[in-house]
Amino acid sequence: MKHKPITTAVHPVTWWSIALIQIAIAIISNTLAPILIIGFTSLACVILLDRNWAKSIRLYALLAAMVFATRLLFRVLFNFAPVNQDVAFQLPLVEINLGLGPVHLLGPLSFLALEAAILDGLRLAVIIFAIGVASSLAKPDQLLKYTPAAIYEVATAVSIAINLAPQLAQSIQRVKKAAALRGRSDGLGLTRSVIIPVLEDAIENIDIGGPAMVRSSAKNYNGVAIVTDPEDYAPLLAEMKANGGALQLATRFGLAKKAFTHTARYDSMIANWLTGLDEGAEAKPEAAAPVPSIFPAKLQLAFDRTEILRYGENSHQSAAFYRDTNPVAGSIAAYTQLQGKELSYNNIADSDAAWECVKSFDAPACVIVKHANPCGVAIDGTLLGAYEKSFKTDSTSAFGGIIAFNGEVGIDVVNAMNERKHFVEVLIAPSFTAEAKAALAGKTNLRVLVVPLSRVLNTLEFKRVGGGLLVQTPDDFTAQASGLKIVTKVQPTAQQIEDLLFAERVAKFVKSNAIVFCGGGMTLGVGAGQMSRVDSTKIASIKAQHAGLDLNGSVVASDAFFPFRDGVDVLAAAGAKAVIQPGGSMRDEEVIAAADEHGLAMVFTGARHFRH
Fold first, then answer.
1. Does domain 205-283 have CATH number 3.40.50.20?
2. Over the stretch 65-75, which tens digit does the pLDDT of each residue have?
3. What number of CA atoms fall less than 13 Å from residue 486's CA on the CB side?
4. How far apart are CA 580 and CA 561, in angstroms?
5. Is 598 in the active site?
6. What is the pLDDT of residue 68?
7. Cα–Cα distances in Å, from 199 out to 179, 204, 273, 281, 325?
8. One of 219, 257, 485, 546 is an active-site residue; which one?
């Protein structure tokens, strides 16, 4: 049956008035209810007045559905929701590196982010559908006769077509380029399915007008308030409400400082990316997806000051703590202080050393640090057991140290610390039970920190030297049983392999030259920071004797190779039965022969762990 056109007794102006009201409500609404009501209202009009649906309405409905689906897809793919929100669902995290630092796609999607995406998608869909319903029910062939709204509709359609056509053409070209580039990234450690922008696209996406307007507004802060941070919306609205719509000069100046910082960091990101490209990349802007070096020729860094510290490493030095603008998950910079005195320069440095060490273990672990060196490390079935074992290593050095745990601290751990009258500067854990918090509350000077647990490392590490900066990637090597090379006649037992891997992991966090005696999942003696490796071995043995710990049957880890056999002679005399070291010395054969002579098992890892 031939479809009949829609006919209604309602004047076309009325339909467009209703549509404009619906659009206005959809734009200003921040909740789903009014938007859904508008959508159902438009749908009801169509169902009641045209059960067969006009072809134009079907097209608008299809467009609305596509817009809604696209909005949801982009939210899931480019998920920038804060990680501390409740997770709606978890997707595999895809990480790519386009220069300084990783870029994450997918991953956990929070309820708040999902709700915002649904709200935005529905708002756009409802606006499109409302226009479609009005234009169809108002009889397009009579719009020019009855109302100037037709001019608005035609102008809108033409404007959309003009703006979207070039973008659509560019998108098609980029998809074709991306299809050609997929699969080329295997040697770069990138995910195949990720589309990496070619140089031409990257340059095209550099914003020029936006930063210029932001900077000009900031320069004229006497009469302009420029807002670049969404977190400022609420306090600014409150101040304007309290002052009759005005903002104080101090507020406008603060906003200007933020704006200049914002544009400066935007330019810094561009500079880091461009100066990290290989020479000649500009000659072939469409040839391949450029992956900038993590060491750009002109390095721009950005950090935010979080606090002015009482003093630096010593009382006559001034100091402050700066946080990375994008700190890695689970770093010490993400701490929340529950109680205690303000942190000092040395507190933060030692806390970082303790936290980086303890978070490297899978089993419940405890690390006690003094002057940036672990003086006691242990793993056990419980945090209480790990604490008791780590405290035994060096109870003298543990006094006034930093303690870090990789699990929730309960009242049993706090009671054990109190029984030993263990004075601690800082106590760190991912969480504390309510009972533990209540018991610790009486220690008003004790600094208690909560840090999210994550094994993610900094992308780069920095060390300031006179007139310059040393930059390197983090030491992310951890020995595995499958990668060990047994070089002696005596084969290590399964238990010795387990203890050797534990010892190697601890030695990684001890200042060089580092020697660590271990056994039964705990450190027995730690020799740190000596100019001679044999001296570190002797000190570690002496520390164990002073603690009353038996080294017979123990294992030893060395952060670097033994240059001579003397170190092996000392550790063998102390009672050690197995050694783990990188190997690579000119005298490896001499060292291995010494190990065979003493009946030791020795394994090489092939990786050194110098720490200065």
1. no
2. 776 677 667 66
3. 15
4. 9
5. no
6. 67
7. 16, 8, 10, 8, 25
8. 219
Task: Specify whether the CB–CB gap between 428 and 351 falls below 8 A.
Answer: yes
Which pLDDT score is estimated for 362?
A: 93
Look up the CATH superfamily of 481-604: AICAR transformylase, duplication domain (3.40.140.20)
Per-residue pLDDT at 95 = 61
| Inter-CA distances, 543 with 121, 352, 368, 549, 610, Å | 65, 24, 15, 9, 22
Out of 104, 262, 371, 392, pick the active-site residue: 371
The reply to whether 205-283 and 481-604 are identical in fold is: no
Show the low-confidence residues of the chain (pLDDT under 70).
1-64, 67-68, 71-72, 74-117, 128-197, 285-290
Q: Residue 378: its pLDDT value, please?
A: 97
Q: Which of 302, 254, 18 has the alpha carbon at shortest distance from 136? A: 18
CATH number, domain 326-450:
3.40.140.20
> H helices of 50-110, where?
55-77
What is the pLDDT at residue 181? 44
Identify how many contiguous H helices and E strands the chain contains and give both numbers: 19, 18
According to the model, what pLDDT value does residue 503 have? Answer: 96
Active-site annotation holds for 422: no
Domain ranges of the chain: 12-169, 205-283, 326-450, 481-604
Residue with tokens 């405890």: 366
